[in-house]
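Reviewers of the previous submission asked for a worked example of the structure-prediction workflow described in the proposal, so we include one complete record here. The input consisted solely of the amino acid sequence. No template or homolog information was supplied to the procedure at any stage.
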Amino acid sequence: MASPSPVLKFQSHKLTHREQANIAEDESSLPYAERPSWADLKPIPQDDGPAPLVPIFYSADYRDAMDMFRAVAAANEKSERALDLTEDIIRMNPAHYTIWQYRTSILLELGLDLKAELALMDELVNENLKSYQVWHHRRLLVTLLSLPPPPSGEPLTVPPPSISTPPTPSALPLANVELAFIASSLTATADAKNYHTWAYRQWALAFFSPLFTPQGREWERELEFVDKLLDEDVRNNSAWTHRFFVVFESGWEGADRAAEVEYAKTRILLAPSSPSAWNYLRGLLPRLPTPLPLSSQNPFAAPLAARDPPVLPALEWLADAGADGAEEAYGKLAGLDPVRRRYWDFRRAELSRGRAVESAA
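From that input alone, the workflow returned the following structure tokens.
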């Protein structure tokens, strides 16, 4: 009787985790197509057609990993080696949303540790701050870790966007961890204006807000956080946008909205030529308990517009508010701001036409 082949012996032996780790380490320098532990799958090359006009010049490592991923996806394999493969590809191309989706399905079908995955995201987020996909994956993980567990025997699933399920009270510590992580990402990475980071912070605040209480002072601490960043850089438009979200759009009823007028004007005086605080002031006036017109702040803007050279945002304010000499103000802006000269000429002509119509009436 012929003895079993080495391959059959290898397949019949159930490897320990240590043996699997040793094999993976020994193979890590090999292409996936040459690794013995992947010998059961045949890589599927990318089909660019018979005569691609402009084929993408992938690196050899990326092409090799993607060829093996296509084989994995074709077999619908959900395994820890497939999970490792997705991480390898993500580190080469963090924007590959198909790989992220497949990784999520592996995590859920195998019931793997989502907290360990979140810890991995701490690393990948800070390495890829401007990747939508990295932040979206983190958002999925935080959502899943914050929801009630599924009924016994049922798998954990991502809730559809149409269903809004509030986080459980036990998720409040995770909310604090997330806010601290985001704060460190904004400060430690020297990218305190990154849109993706701020958008994720707003999502986290909105998602966890049902757990916030007056005693917890979560919203007050958020304003203190924004104050700190504006102290460091009053021109940080992202911080101003976030402050507007907290005070006027978050649903928080404890904000002193009327006090924001003086807050904005105080900050404007620190950097009068920066449009950030001016835009904040412009946006908050109609959102006050008693809405105010732009002209209510003309006495503040006029001295700044009268400087030599004039403060351009102040000059624009007076012109937009329809102050005396508004047409002249637009003319000055056209001369002082040549990049937008045609825009200022348009605004001046528009104002002239409007006044002509009013006079005719």
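The chain has a mean pLDDT of 90. We consider this example representative of the routine output the project will generate in years two and three.
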